[in-house]
Write a sequence for this structure.
């Protein structure tokens, strides 16, 4: 099962010149499951993902208005061929993240998962908590902020395990379309 992980697309009607990179749309088309960790900002973008993704697992982010919050949960949980995955926008500061995420999503928690995909910081992240939860932040495909490149991630699920996790750096002048 091929996964595309993305977040913080930050598309709004205020910025019609900004679209998503063609490479990201190609990855959406190729994925069996698309995971989006919020900050869509435009319900039309959610419509586009729903139309193109074979399966979408998504949540809302802090910049998403009522229209998106009415359609998406704050945290979504899915079973992907035996892999339990959650997606939420914010996990707080980097310091203490593993401890907080173990308390909320680790073994013995109310919502135990194998993988947590999150966003908000625009900083790619890949770590594992002491309890064994894999934490992934794919960064942002549209706003690199202080990072060297805009990013997204791909991964695979095989036999109930996450494999082949890869961060993709987008070229600075990536062609964009919406």
């Amino acid at each position: 099962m091929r996964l595309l992980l993305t977040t913080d697309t930050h598309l709004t009607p205020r910025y019609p010149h900004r679209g998503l990179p063609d490479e990201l749309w190609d990855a959406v088309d190729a994925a069996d499951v698309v995971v989006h960790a919020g900050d869509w900002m435009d319900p039309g973008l959610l419509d586009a993902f729903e139309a193109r993704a074979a399966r979408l697992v998504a949540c809302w982010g802090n910049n998403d208005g009522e229209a998106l919050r009415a359609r998406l949960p704050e945290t979504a949980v899915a079973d992907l061929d035996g892999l339990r995955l959650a997606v939420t926008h914010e996990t707080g500061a980097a310091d203490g993240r593993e401890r907080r995420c173990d308390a909320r999503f680790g073994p013995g928690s109310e919502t135990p998962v194998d993988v947590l995909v999150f966003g908000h910081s625009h900083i790619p992240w890949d770590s594992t908590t002491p309890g064994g939860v894999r934490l992934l932040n794919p960064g942002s495909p549209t706003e690199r902020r202080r990072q060297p490149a805009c990013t997204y991630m791909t991964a695979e699920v095989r036999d109930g395990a996450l494999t082949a996790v890869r961060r993709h750096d987008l070229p600075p002048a990536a062609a964009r379309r919406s």
Observations:
- Helices lie at 22-30, 43-52, 66-71, 97-105.
